[in-house]
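Hi team, as promised in this morning's meeting, here are the two structures we talked about. I've kept the exact order from the run log so nobody has to guess. The first one is mostly here for context; it's the second one we should focus on when we meet again. Sequence first, then the predicted structure tokens.
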Amino acid sequence: MPRVEFDINSGVSPDRFIAALTDFSPARADIWPNIDAQHLKVHEVGPDSADVTEGSSLAGGVWERNRYDWSTPDTVRVETIESNTWRPGSSWLYRVTPTGTGSHIHVSVDRRPASLKGRLIAVLLVLGGRRVLRQATEQVLRKLEQPS
């Protein structure tokens, strides 16, 4: 059951980052490197929550149906409901706090493998997950820093 945590300071405002986390339009796949447009299906979006299936072609196809919750200020929690890789209860937690010039982002990822594929990816997360997930988040932040 790998748990990965990391922190990033960015010039991107907390509102802009949280808006990107909670934007479930087709542009989502352009911003988030681990989401393919063909795996994105929005089931329901409310004022502070969403039910979304997303994933990528990685490892022959990894998908999960997630419940997003951003009802707590400066926080977005993503909990797995169903997946071909992860057990329900697997999660991502983003805490985004303002700084004088942007935001401080704390990311906590808790993965509970549900299949052989999940166990293999979990090993990779233990070996290099912090670096890989941090780089993917930094890539998102670079895109968000570009003028709209």
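And here is the second protein, the one for discussion:
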Amino acid sequence: MFCVQASNITMPWNGSRLPGFTPTRGLRQGDPMYPYPFVLCMEKLACLIGRKKVQDKSWKPIHVSKGGAGISHLFLADGILLFVKAKNFQVRSMQSVLNVFYKDSRLQVNYDKS
């Protein structure tokens, strides 16, 4: 925990700086452990997509070539891409996976973001 408590943070507010504070919990960008929570969470999402939805054929991945492997999701350094056919039942399947994932991870969903 020493690496998390090693700094003092100040923030600007209305043209002046607020008094500094020392963080006591969580990870900050640049911390060696910073990428691992994302990797662990994305592993859970990959299992929800692949093992539950793709195998029972309720999520149909896209195919780049005829007879080629299907692509249902790609995880990037700081984001994800989800691929489904442009059908209503596919979108509902994707939303159900995201709802389960967000509920389990206690994050909030914003479907209005463009």
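Starting points for discussion:
The longest helix spans residues 35-54.
The two ends are 37 Å apart (CA to CA).
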